[in-house]
Amino acid sequence: MIDVITFISILLCSFLTPKIINFWFKKGTQEQAQRLPPGPPRWPIFGNLLQLGQLPHRDLASLCEKYGPLVYIRLGKVDCITTNDPDIIREILLQQWDLTIICRTWTKSLPLGPRTLAAVHLAYNCGDVALAPLGPKWKRMRRICMEHLLTTKRLESFASHRVNEAQHLVKNVWTLAQKGDAINLREVLGTFSMNNVTRMLLGKQYFGSEFAGRDEAMEFMHITHELFWLLGLIYLGDYFPLWRWVDPFGCEKKMRDVEKRVDDFHTKIIEEHRQRNRKQEDNDQTEMDFVDILLSLPGEDGKKAHG
Q1: Chain-centre distance of CA 36, in angstroms?
Q2: Which of 39, 110, 133, 267 is the most buried (most CB within 10 A)?
Q3: Per residue in 32-43, pLDDT tens?
């Protein structure tokens, strides 16, 4: 009799235990889901990745219009929250929320930033001011930009360069108009904008009559186009780690190649500025570009970058 009772007890336990575990697992999952913003249904393995097309920003905007200002989606193994609400975006940027606390409130697996493989390879392991996570390093980089690059005095010091670029713009458009050629406004205005930026940052004009040199200008154009294309690419290896082992389209190899070209380009620019600064003992502050300013600032060890 005891053996029968024991057998029945074991049978009931073996039957009920999985049910109880499954019940509590579902309950915990539902409670966690209640703390997440609403979102579209997800496919197994792929999540919502198949719902993003060639223009993912438009797809994400459509999801926000359908489900609300905050939308939870899952891309492969990565949990994400997206928004298109200007007030929420402004509050995040201005108030500088502690994203770690927010993510722990919603879900432990939410990423703290756009740490994609392209950002790791092409932005020095997410170390630039645009992609670095919130923290002391990012605040220091932002302070350097605000104090040395985006000040009124600094912007006014480049006023003559902007006037010069505007003159080149008008002259170029006038020449094309006299010849009866079509004017590509996107190309003309893009050249104007890029020259203003590169003069302020690098001290060089890469397009126009006074450009740095055809080979260097072409290299700069190719690097810039490939860099932004790869940074905006939806790479499946970011969401499916096994995909990186195959990499059938060679995207990661392309990232490494562009990474080396970017690093070589930056090294060349820095060395040119160092050599120029050695030759010029009295360097006029108004003629310094952003690379000169960075080289003059003390590093983390308290020493200047150019020694």
Answers
A1: 25
A2: 39
A3: 555 788 999 998
Cβ distance 63 to 73 under 8 Å? yes
| List of residues 6+ apart from 194 with CB closer than 8 A | 206, 207
Residue 19, phi-psi category: left (phi > 0), alpha (psi -120 to 50), beta (remainder): alpha
Q: Are residues 144 and 294 in contact, defined by beta-carbon separation less than 8 angstroms?
A: yes
Residue type at 153?
A: K
Is 0.85 topped by the overall pTM? no
CB 110 within 8 A of CB 80: yes
Gyration radius (Cα) of the chain, Å: 27
Tell me the per-residue pLDDT of 79-113, one tens digit each, with 9 for 90 and over: 888 888 888 888 876 665 444 434 433 333 344 45
Quote the CA–CA distance of 307 and 299 in Å, as a whole number: 10
Gap between the Cα atoms of 62 and 59, Å rounded: 5
Dist CA 163 CA 174 (whole Å): 16
Question: Which tokens belong to 301?
Answer: 């060890």
Which SS3 state, helix, strand or coil, does residue 50 take? helix
Spatial contact of 254 and 118, defined as CB atoms under 8 Å apart: no
- Strands 78-83, 70-75: pairing is antiparallel
Alpha helices in the chain (DSSP H): 2-34, 56-67, 86-95, 99-106, 117-122, 136-148, 152-157, 159-179, 185-201, 214-231, 241-246, 251-279, 290-296
